[in-house]
Amino acid sequence: MDIFSDPKFMHGSFTSTSPKIRRETIERVKKAMDAAKEIDCPLVNPWPGQDGHDYLFQSNYRESWKRLIDGVRECAEHRPDVRIALEYKLKEPRSHILLSTVGKTLFVCSEVGLENVGATLDVGHAMMAYENLAESAVLLSSKGKLFNIHLNDNYGDWDWDLVPATTHLWQFTEFLLWLKAVGYKGWMLMDVSPNREDPVKVFTRSIRNLKLVWESLNRARIERLIQLSDKGDISEAWQALEKVF
Asked: Which of 42, 59, 102, 164 is buried most, with the most CB atoms less than 10 Å from its CB?
């Protein structure tokens, strides 16, 4: 649902100071949830990218957080049978987005207090926030809030939406390892932007990269790598990895 690109949302969606805009935001999410139910889709993925601030003294943080939490709760109560996967991001289009990190996302989930509210883990957004992909996945999973995953890559400075595992191969390797460990069964979407490349080749390469990492992990024995992580012996862990990569 578009609650970020339409110019009317440039000053916020859930957190807008305009009651009219806040109501339109909530109704758009509810409408998407109804449509999702009709086509047997298990979740919707709101991205409150305009909810934040660009300058100091520009936001009433107390009211902004309250509006965000209250708005999400109202949407979740509308259809308990459809999940809401909140997507977080550090910055862009605002210099500071309210829902910016895995910790803040878990805070919102906790405050809303409903089972059908969780998170979309966009790995590129997590990299921008200097998060460890595997750790963020474990934190969300520990509370049953890892609802959805977006796969792409970047250099940590911007949301470039590059082919997965082209710049962060080892982070993706550990990430997939721990997705297996926590028993993730949801979707993994390719959120990649082939701006100058052939789209078919880009998405074929994206899928192939993930399969290559997954096949390598299987050869290295996933359970063994988790045991070695628990020991904290990096030499042993890398010795197991070097045999298959």
From this structure: 164
Q: How far apart are CA 152 and CA 189, in angstroms?
A: 9
Beta strand pairing status for 146-151 and 96-97? unpaired
Indicate the residue type of 7: P
What tokens were used for 166?
């082209």
pLDDT in tens, 134-189: 999 999 999 999 999 999 999 999 999 999 999 999 999 999 999 999 999 999 99
H-run or E-run covering 22: helix 19-38
Q: How many CB atoms lie within 10 A of CB 231?
A: 9
User: What pTM was estimated for this model as a whole?
Assistant: 0.96
Q: CB-based contacts of 60: which residues, under 8 Å, 6+ apart?
A: none
* Helix (H) or strand (E) segment spanning residue 31: helix 19-38
How far, CA to CA in Å, does 206 sit from each of 28, 35, 107, 169? 32, 29, 32, 12
In whole angstroms, how far apart are CA 14 and each of 17, 19, 105, 177, 195? 9, 9, 15, 35, 31
